[in-house]
Amino acid sequence: MQLSICHRLVCNMGGSISVESVPGKGSTFSVTLPTQEQAAAEVRPQRVHTAEPSARRPSVLVIDDEKMMCDLLSNMLRDDYDVTTFSSSPVARDRLLKPGLFDVVLCDLMMPELTGMDLHAEVQRKRPEQAARFVFMTGGTFTGQASRFLDDIDTPPLMKPFRQGELRSAIERRLQQFAPSAVHPRVPCNYH
Known about the structure:
This protein is of the alpha/beta class.
């Protein structure tokens, strides 16, 4: 089971995994992943929003309790977006309740301190314009409550592991709904 998950993760990132086994001596697993330049060469969806060339870049907030996932997503997105990451959902909640809008909020569904569902509910009550910009990410293991929640939201979740193209498409779909506007103050890029 764990090996199949590893295989799926590596393949979804454009890599390969191989194994050599010697009876009585053990096994060697080799993982090959594309370089950042090779991954960036992957076909990206074209932007459809019609911002002025001198307009600011869209801001993306990433909330995931796994710091490594925050770093990975930041690296995947930072060439085209202003990315802020939080590995603590309560800290992210505090930031989301302050003035300023993020253009897109990528939020993990299942987190230990404050789930993505609970975080969204609180932001929805206090800042509905920000709550409308959420895109949820999930590893596919969730409760009945989480299943009902995902059925009720207006955007499909990103199922981990996802490819860079899927991630960018989800962001661009959300940006199409809420074109960045100079009316809202820019949210500065921070890494936590």
